[in-house]
Amino acid sequence: MTFVIRTASRAANGREIVRSLRIDADRLTIGRAPTCDIHLPDLQLALLHAAIERKGDDRVEVTALAEMPFEVDGRSTQQATISLTAGGEVLLGAHRLAIGRDDAGDTLIRIERIGDVSGAAIADDEKTLFSLRKIAPPRRATAWVLAILILAAFLVWPIRSFYAPPSAAGAAQADAAWSPGKLSQAHAGLEKNCKACHQAAFVAVQDSGCRSCHTDTHDHAAPARLAKASPIPGLEGRLQRSISAAFNRPPGRCVDCHTEHQGATAMAPTPQRFCADCHGGLKERLPDTPFGDAHDFAAAHPQFRPTIADAGTPATLRRVSLDRRPKQDNGLTFPHALHLSTTNAVARMAQRQGKTGELGCTDCHSRDAEGGFRPVSMEANCQSCHSLAFARSDGTVRTLRHGDPRQVVAELRDFFALHGPSRPGAIDSGRRRPGDFVAASLSATYGRAMANRGNAAERSIRAVFSPGGACYDCHKVVPPAAGGSLNFRIAPVVQQKNYMPHALFDHRPHASATCATCHAAPTSNSASDLLMPKIAECRTCHAGADPARGQIKSICATCHVYHQETGTIAAVSPPNQSPGPRHDFAALRLSKR
Amino acid sequence: MAMAGGRQTDRVKAFRHEGYLRHAQFRWAKIGAVAAIAAIAVYLFHDPDPRPNGGTWYGYTLGTIGALLILWLTALGIRKRTMTRNAWSLKAWTSAHVYLGLTLLVIGTLHTGFQLGWNVHTLAYALMVLVIASGMFGVVVYSLLPRMLSDNRGELTETQMLDNLRSIDRQLNDAAQPLEGANAALIVGALAEDAFASGLWARLSGRERRGATWLARERLDASDAASVRAEILLGRKLEMLRQIQQHLRLRALLEIWLYVHVPVTIALIAALAAHIVSVFFYW
């Protein structure tokens, strides 16, 4: 039979060139060897690859000769029968053989190379071949994807969640990525609740947000006075203010000083400039102010003006500069020097009571938990030396009641009514020798004493409340109004806890210094000496905002609190007088809001 | 960048190409440097409470300048589509783009007040830094790589490289026709090797790839004339492949920065929008 072989190839311009070949045979061999009937220069083929054999009128059989399978109509096989009428396609390596019948009735095999010889890429994409365009992610698509992701995650989602009803706990927080920094420790609980302060969209944080929690924080002073006291801003300040006002950011908001989102630490203290702006030249703008100008602790700060409580019912308060060397009437007679001496009888007595040396400050003054001191009390601090015992009877020591003069009078009266004078033994010897005047006078004295028992009580009472008496040693005594009355009273006593109610002072950080470093107690001979240190004393260690080497930086906020309420001024004893109230100075115009 | 030694005379200038970096005797470099130094000086003298941040008056000012700069710098993408000459030439514009982009790095950093965290604000800053860094990379490769590129290609154009490769492949195909199975299979592999099939990372790294061609040359059993000829051709193909790979690497390095610079710029503008809106939304 006749096989017609048509080999198709393409010219460079894409034109198809077909070469025809007729072979009369019943069996054709196909392969890379030049001896094959159909020679295909294809390295994927074996030298002798396959054979095509005629089987009857209408069928040919294709058989693999090198045990390498070929594809027929998409199936991989080593042997296939193809009907000439229906036709079929055989794939050998990079060549396609289409087998069928031509018009003349001969068996037609059309051969076409379908794979490239070279793996080097084809010409149509030469332009992009050498660039990154095919292998790098496309620029435009990447840009769109990134932009949409960012806008969705950081803008759309947070804004949607702002207007959505509060979500269940544990839901992801959409606006977390908006927070420019951690909140201070005090506000850590609001970390996930932005709306607590940022209450309305595009509206700067207003004081109303702060006030919803800080209900008892009051103004520093009346707003009108505050406004009057603040300095007139310069051109730059005025410009800034008008811009701020245009954006609904009025000056004087809480957040102007209490800046948030600065990290999870304590909120930074308000800088000194904030105070100095007004207080640096306050007298000028607010002539009726009681305060001296101040803008830096080292450079410009008035002398301390302690609030002095003078004993009385109630105690009276006054503010006096330490420059005027004020005295304080605390109702006591108490020389510090006497008690702190290292050589006198007091020191000796302390030794007797088992102390190694003389008395020290802490023998009477004990710390409280707030960095101050507890009031001195008779029972705890004085009585070990200053005994109020006055007699021994019925196997017990009789003691006067401290802090209640009426009880003292009543007790002494009762005692003398019940107990006569002790009878001297010499009276009862029985026989009297002539000229024994001693016994006679003793007896007479005893007799008189027995008769005068009431008078003796009165004398003792007067003695107790008089110089040399137990009360008079320490207290000022108010004598009875009427001459014969025994209605003695003790003047009220003030023990002041705090002389500087508008400043913070804590003794604890100062523990490394001795008491006498600041308080001149060892040389004070009078109870009315005010032992408060002057500002110069503090300045030996404390500098202002710009300390020299070795000094301590102390800004206004080191001692002063902007929203401070007046501290406790005085504890007043004795206990039967009510302690001093918290005191508001009219001059401060503190108003709680 | 090295500064020009002295003023060039007009005659020399006429013969000498003045690049975009040197444009108008570094006019924009000077403007950018002065602006950056001024911004730093004000930052040092400005002493806000409690510390410098984007929310002080100076912070808002720097932020506004920075945002406008970003938009203007982005406009180069539109501007570059038209070439013009003279004062507002594309070269002048590109020169300004480079130096003001460097100034933006200073302005943006000062605007942060060095307060960074895991939030949208720092995201915008980080994207800005990434864009500027990729731009700097671009400036550097544009000034260094073209010489290496032409050194490597010799006299060949890219099309010639491809034709060369195909021609070697055709010869290899013809030469290998008489070869036996194992040898033929090696050649088939070598012919199938595509020099352009490598991924992005492989192109950039420039590691020498030992593909099918290298393997064929290693293992080919050269015992007769045909296989010796095939071996020689394999060696030639290997040389050609090495040259093409080096060319591809240099071109990839030359182009890759734009694949960061452009999409990240758009991402930056999105992040900038989110940053600005969020700041005023929660004011």
From TrEMBL, chain A:
Names of the cofactor(s): heme c
InterPro entries on file: Cyt_c7-like (IPR029467), FHA_dom (IPR000253), Multihaem_cyt_sf (IPR036280), Multiheme_Cytochr_ET (IPR051829), SMAD_FHA_dom_sf (IPR008984), Tetrahaem_cytochrome (IPR012286)
Signal sequence, start to end: none
Residues annotated as domain Cytochrome c7-like: 504-560
Keyword Signal in annotation: yes
Transmembrane segments: 141-159
Main location: other
Gene3D superfamilies the record matches: 2.60.200.20, Cytochrome C3 (3.90.10.10)
Any one cellular-component term (Gene Ontology): cell envelope
GO molecular-function term, one example from the UniProt record: oxidoreductase activity
Domain Tetrahaem cytochrome: 187-279
Name this polypeptide is given: Cytochrome c3 family protein
Source organism per UniProt: Sphingomonas aliaeris
Lineage start: Bacteria, Pseudomonadati, Pseudomonadota, Alphaproteobacteria, Sphingomonadales
Automatic annotation (TrEMBL), chain B:
Chain ranges passing through the membrane: 26-45, 57-78, 98-118, 124-145, 256-282
Keywords for the protein's UniProt record, in alphabetical order: Membrane, Transmembrane, Transmembrane helix
Superkingdom of the source species: Bacteria
Name this polypeptide is given: Iron reductase
Organism: Sphingomonas aliaeris
